[in-house]
Amino acid sequence: VSGSLLPVYITEAVPTPCVFGIFRPAVYLTPDAAKDPQIRSHVLEHELTHFRHGDHIWAIMRGICLTIHWYNPLVWAAAFMSKNDAELACDEATIKRIGEDERAEYGRTLIMMTCEKRPALFNTATTMTGSGKTIKERISILVKKPKMAAYALVIVAFIGIIAAVMTFTGAKKGGQNFYEWTSSLTASDIELAEI
Hints:
4-stranded mixed sheet; 65% helix
């Protein structure tokens, strides 16, 4: 594929498109993903985003952690959440690169590429797979994202204004601001407060 950061191979040896390799990473596409130009474009952008984020390295690190701490359920939970977070971040960055008008089509590609595949947590390649719950979460975020951005901006602005008002007005106690009042306390004042 011309213009790709990585070599791209079409193979039936992988169940889903992925990036694999440390020293010579490459994108591996399934024949189904390579057939349709739009799906191929979405999948390539998704996998190249994984590469830009270094997710192929993090997948190996997750595997090493799971190998060493196979007995610790918290490590398994952390690995699961790490993989899910990587996919959510990849989806959002991919949408930014391909454009908001492709959001719905990208969601369809995501469903098509993941509906028949089972996720593998102990996998050192980046894949588009996920459990039914995580795929549902990813699709719902893709659908709701433009609305969420406006609400989040309003909430953050409101919290910022409240924090600024509370910080800069200063609480008053006996005609002094709170800092001056606490600075004027003596050891006997503190002892009385403890009793």
